[in-house]
Design goal:
Layout: E1 37-41, H1 51-60, E2 65-69, H2 70-73, H3 81-89, E3 93-99, H4 107-116, E4 134-140, H5 163-171, E5 175-176, E6 180-182, H6 190-215
Length: 216
């Protein structure tokens, strides 16, 4: 059929490919094809972070750890739910590391909870994907520990702000591990920071070693 000039049917443009940073790729499986530890890192300004960057560098030195830096991987907040779920399914320990913001998690971490831990997958009827996995919360606060007292700026002990994260894990059937908290992250001196990072790394190494014994 002839078409009037200028009305030729144009072929559809191929979908735009979104370039993702290296962290987007699924993790580094161990020799059995399973990632022992998935570290979900959420810092709105990862390049400007001091304390969290030191902690993250310590965790990266654990061979069993796969890091997903949410703000680097999803600057457009368009989370690839399938890729995130694949990483979690392949892991035995899930770490949530982020600075405490408004007594909770950064916005992209909250969106990650909303989309990845969806009803019917990790919660709700049939939502058993994460049952039996372990969860570790690693967070930093701007205020010193004294700020989390009745006389401090935040009026309540820090333990009062833990249940939201704890119940997120428990509601998914995960095993809640004692959280690792660094207070006064903006002012803490280098020695304290690096000792805290060493403790973090040691806890990850211990989990990996125990998991290998159980699976061996």
């Amino acid at each position: 059929m002839c078409r009037p000039p200028g009305t030729e049917k144009r072929s559809a443009k191929p979908p735009r490919r979104v370039r993702r940073p290296p962290d987007f790729a699924p993790g580094r499986p161990d020799r059995r094809g399973v990632n022992l530890i998935a570290l979900i890192y959420a810092h709105p300004h990862p390049a400007r972070s001091r304390a969290n960057r030191v902690l993250l560098d310590a965790a990266r030195r654990v061979p069993s750890v796969t890091v997903r830096s949410l703000y680097d991987t999803y600057p457009d907040f368009a989370i690839d739910v399938a890729a995130e779920r694949q990483l979690l399914v392949e892991s035995q320990l899930i770490v949530w590391q982020h600075p405490l913001m408004w007594y909770s998690s950064p916005a992209l971490q909250k969106l990650w909870f909303d989309t990845v831990l969806g009803d019917g997958w990790a919660t709700g009827e049939g939502g058993t994907a994460l049952v039996g996995k372990s969860c570790l919360w690693v967070t930093t606060t701007g205020a010193p520990a004294a700020g989390y007292t009745p006389e401090g700026a935040h009026r309540f002990p820090f333990a009062a702000f833990v249940p939201v994260m704890e119940m997120t894990a428990r509601y998914c059937g995960m095993i809640w591990l004692p959280p690792l908290v660094l207070h006064g992250a903006h002012q803490v001196d280098d020695d304290v920071l690096h000792r805290h990072a060493a403790e973090y790394r040691q806890r990850l190494l211990a989990f990996a070693a125990d998991a290998e014994v159980v699976r061996g």
